[in-house]
Write a structure and sequence with these properties.
The protein is built from 10 helices and 13 strands. Strand 9, helix 6 and strand 10 form a beta-alpha-beta unit. By secondary structure, the chain is α/β, with parallel strands linked by helices. Helix 1 crosses helix 9 and helix 9 runs antiparallel to helix 10. A 9-stranded mixed sheet has the order 5-4-1-8-9-10-11-12-13, sandwiched between helices. Strands 3-2-6-7 form a 4-stranded mixed sheet.
Length: about 300
């Protein structure tokens, strides 16, 4: 990890307003009312990183509207650098309606501004100053963000920045699964740290695969480190040609909200990775943060 760089995590991708259902354990068709939260997987990672005392920079796009103003206010409050967020005059800020559930939530996206990330938002200087370049499958699902992120990820890689991705694949966001595979393979050539969940893999491969087959798929694409989250069953991490590490989840008395638990997990992992902790230690920190998030609706509480 290059410690001379000032940006700990460059988070590139969707910033959204999440409307999370107020009724627990029902799908959207039975949800009566919603509470508003700041959302978007890379946004959650940026905010969690700031709360953990890291220096994150957010690269995203919002509309010139009340939701956009709300996003800027919330990001500023926790100390996320927002200089690379662009405001569009003719596109509304993206919003997502999410059910409140104990499993993977049901969601309906209304996407507009978030997909318009362009190359002028990420300078070579910014990439040269970043330790980790992090994005998501969600962000890669639509143009022009897709081309922008792939190009800038390659530049970041060549400049010695470590790549990271949350492969939060959802069929409804992509034109086709074939296209998703092509884009994922292009990003994986750059040897990112990968976070996937069992649910993501079931949606991507459209069948249940043994964990070792999932790991092999990504290792064969040139990925060294693959982290597979298993919900209440904990996590497995595979490094190429090494023994798989498996750790149990931390027991939580009462699950308040699963939305953002994966982002909290990955924020903890990247935090420990930046601090050059051993990989098993990275997983332990990640599991602690995920457990904390499960006990809080909306955001992760500030860390001291």
């Amino acid at each position: 990890m290059n410690n001379n760089r000032n940006i700990d995590i460059l988070c590139v991708g969707e910033v959204l307003v999440d409307f999370i259902g107020h009724q627990t354990g029902v799908l959207i068709n039975n949800t009566r009312d919603y509470h508003r939260y700041l959302g978007g997987s890379p946004t959650n990672v940026a905010m969690n990183a700031a709360r953990l005392g890291l220096k994150p920079v957010m690269v995203s796009t919002v509309g010139n509207d009340g939701f956009g103003e709300y996003i800027f206010k919330r990001l500023k409050e926790v100390g996320v650098n927002i200089e690379n967020i662009k405001v569009l005059e003719n596109k509304p800020t993206s919003v997502i309606f999410v059910s409140k559930s104990e499993g993977t939530p049901d969601f309906i996206p209304f996407r507009d501004a978030d997909r318009y990330i362009t190359k002028d938002q990420i300078s070579k200087e910014t990439l040269s100053d970043s330790k980790i370049f992090h994005t998501t499958c969600f962000a890669l699902s639509k143009e022009p963000a897709q081309s922008t992120i792939l190009k800038k990820a390659e530049e970041a890689y060549k400049l010695g920045c470590k790549l990271s991705i949350d492969l939060n694949y959802a069929k409804k966001l992509w034109e086709s699964r074939d296209q998703a595979f092509k884009v994922i393979e292009a990003y994986c050539k750059l040897n990112p740290l990968i976070k996937i969940s069992e649910d993501d893999m079931l949606r991507l491969f459209e069948k249940e695969l043994p964990h070792d087959q999932i790991f092999k798929f990504f290792h064969d694409l040139n990925v060294d480190t693959v982290c597979l989250t298993l919900g209440q069953d904990g996590v497995k991490l595979s490094k190429k040609n090494k023994k798989v590490i498996a750790l149990p989840a931390i027991k939580v008395d009462k699950v308040m909200d699963t939305t953002g638990a994966g982002d909290a997990f990955w924020s903890g992992f990247l935090f420990a990775y930046i601090k050059e902790k051993p990989i098993e230690e990275c997983l332990k920190v990640a599991l602690q943060l995920a457990a904390l998030k499960l006990q809080n609706v909306g955001r992760l509480p500030r860390q001291h």
